[in-house]
Specification:
By secondary structure, the protein is of the alpha/beta class. The chain contains twelve helices and nine strands. Helix 3 links the parallel strand 1 and strand 2. Helix 4 packs parallel to helix 5 and helix 5 packs across helix 7. The two termini are 16 Å apart. Bound molecules: iron/sulfur cluster (SF4). Iron/sulfur cluster (SF4) binds next to helix 9 and helix 12. Iron/sulfur cluster binds next to helix 9 and helix 12.
């Protein structure tokens, strides 16, 4: 089976059970509004990212949080406000990703939030450094929560290369956490969470692609994702960009994909830990705040509100005039099939 067929089969398995008439109609209405470039929507977001926290114990040099470049306050999402948001979103959204500019597992209520969303039939995912999967009870709770997918970032096949970027991470601890998670899932005869190992290809680890493939195979993860590196405006991205140009993410606006229209404001919402909605998860320092879903009347009110409508108008007519979107790395190919 080719990788494309494998991915299509996986998506069908993952999203199949999420199809309800309400979600499908909502997504269709979002797509129609996008085609028409309508600015005022009467729908809800179909895909949501929710940031549990922007605290992290690692010090990844390109990351706005790890490098200390992030200017917005640090904190943890209010669990009851998140639960209200989940209840509002769940009938309409296919997926809620618990991800942002911090380590989600530092939030003590993360798995309760995941459980609430999973019980409402939403596909749930968590992106993590894998450094907090320490005890058997940690991994048992993850499997019990109903989490659909976990993406573990492991940018090194050896301790030496891992800690060049994921500073403070310990390779053997991450590997052991993944092993116990997969073993617990097997013992409990569960298919979820599906485990994806993500390897961001950089200068110091580009020679380790064959080695990380072996690591992924030995661990028995469901998927290995080789991702191109993004710098989030860090001053020294060249220090990390791979030497092999084929492994770099194109950054030029001349790239063909720049001419593609951005679908995000018509179907997805990113919510930061304090409830601030931004157009997509690339807006790490809230350059385009679109309202606060914990304070301004909820997700629907923000999504259908004037600030979102105004942003949709601006991105339709003058995307290059929005600094966030001008050199958007998100619309450029980020994944490598190597
Ligand atoms: S930064 Fe990119 S993905 Fe985000 S809203 Fe702008 S164009 Fe879309």
């Amino acid at each position: 089976m080719t990788r494309t067929v494998q991915r299509a089969a996986y998506r069908l398995r993952a999203y199949g059970p999420r199809f309800t008439p309400r979600r499908v109609l909502n997504l269709a209405a979002n797509r129609i509004a996008f085609r028409r470039q309508a600015s005022r929507l009467r729908t809800m977001p179909s895909f949501v990212t929710l940031e549990p926290t922007n605290h992290c114990r690692l010090r990844c040099p390109l990351c706005p949080t790890g490098s200390g470049r992030i200017r917005r306050p640090r904190g943890f999402a209010d669990s009851s406000a998140v639960e209200r948001a989940i209840d509002e979103i769940a009938p309409f959204a296919f997926r809620i990703s618990f991800v942002g500019y911090g380590e989600p597992f530092l939030h003590r209520d993360l798995l309760a939030m995941v459980h609430r969303a999973s019980c409402r039939g939403v596909l749930t995912s968590v992106d993590t450094s894998g450094t907090l999967l320490k005890t058997q009870s940690d991994v048992e709770s993850i499997v019990e929560s109903g989490l659909s997918e976990i993406l573990v970032s492991l940018d090194g096949a050896t301790q030496e290369s891992l800690e060049k970027y994921r500073r403070n991470a310990v390779l053997e601890e991450v590997l052991q956490g993944i092993r116990s998670l997969i073993e617990t899932r097997r013992r409990r005869r569960r298919r979820s969470p599906s485990v994806c190992l993500q390897f961001v290809v950089m200068k110091h680890n580009e020679h380790e692609i064959p080695a990380i493939r072996r690591v992924a195979r030995d661990l028995g993860v469901d998927r290995l994702r080789l991702k191109t590196c993004t710098s989030w405006g860090a001053p020294d991205p060249e220090n990390y960009a791979p030497s092999d140009p084929a492994l770099r993410r194109p950054t030029s606006r001349a790239s063909k994909s720049f001419s593609r229209r951005c679908l995000f404001p018509w179907q997805a919402m990113a919510i930061d830990w304090d409830g601030t909605a931004v157009p997509c998860c690339d807006d790490w320092d809230e350059s385009v705040p679109l309202g606060n879903v914990f304070q301004d009347g909820g997700v629907r009110s923000v999504w259908q509100g004037e600030r979102y409508a105004d942003f949709r108008r601006r991105i339709s007519t003058d995307r290059a005039g929005i600094p966030l979107c001008r050199d958007c790395p998100i619309l450029l190919p980020e994944e490598k099939s190597l």
